[in-house]
């Protein structure tokens, strides 16, 4: 179980976790809802007429998850989790404006000590909301 910020003694860890994420906060203004809990886990919700995408950023441990929901179904039709997501980039090119996340893909009952596959996803926010998973070919 994670410690709340008030229980943490090493402020350097908190600053390091949040510093890299400051670079992409502007693009997340497009979220239709934002929630933060006492453990600095932030949930961004992007709602479209077809689907709802939830981006969950656990800023203290660097993990990121994304889920895609459709109307009438309580469980996501797609759920991806990245462990130790250290590389987050904001991209604005001819394909649109998106966030690119790179970390270690969590598969099933994954533990941090097991073998890892470097992977990520691109969360496009303009001109349309869409999700594009990928594997890092350089890993």
Percent of sequence in beta strands: over 45%
Overall structural class, as computed from helix and strand content, comes to mainly beta
- Count up the helices: 1
Overall pLDDT metric: 76
Count of extended strands: 8
Distance between the termini: 30 Å
Element-level helix/strand string: HEEEEEEEE
* Largest sheet: number of strands, sense, barrel closure: 8 strands, antiparallel
- Please tell me the total number of domains: 1
User: Uncertain segments of ≥5 residues (pLDDT<50)?
Assistant: 1-19
Structure description:
- By secondary structure, this protein is mainly beta.
- The protein has one helix and eight strands, in the order αββββββββ.
- β5 (78-93) and β6 (96-105) form a beta hairpin.
Q: Could you give the topology of this structure?
A:
Elements (H helix, E strand, L loop, with lengths): L10 H9 L13 E4 L4 E7 L3 E8 L4 E8 L7 E16 L2 E10 L12 E9 L3 E6 L4
Antiparallel strand pairs: 1-2, 2-3, 3-4, 4-5, 5-6, 6-7, 7-8
């Amino acid at each position: 179980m994670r410690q709340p910020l008030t229980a943490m003694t090493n402020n350097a860890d908190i600053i390091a976790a949040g510093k890299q994420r400051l670079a992409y906060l502007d693009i997340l203004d497009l979220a239709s809802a934002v929630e933060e809990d006492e453990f600095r886990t932030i949930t961004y919700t992007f709602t479209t007429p077809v689907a709802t995408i939830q981006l969950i950023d656990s800023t203290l441990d660097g993990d990121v998850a994304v889920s895609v929901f459709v109307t009438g179904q309580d469980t996501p039709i797609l759920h991806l989790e990245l462990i130790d997501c250290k590389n987050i980039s904001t991209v604005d090119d001819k394909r649109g404006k998106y966030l690119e996340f790179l970390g270690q893909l969590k598969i099933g009952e994954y533990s941090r000590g097991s073998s890892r596959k470097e992977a990520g996803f691109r969360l496009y926010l303009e001109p349309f909301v869409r999700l594009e998973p990928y594997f890092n070919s350089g890993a």
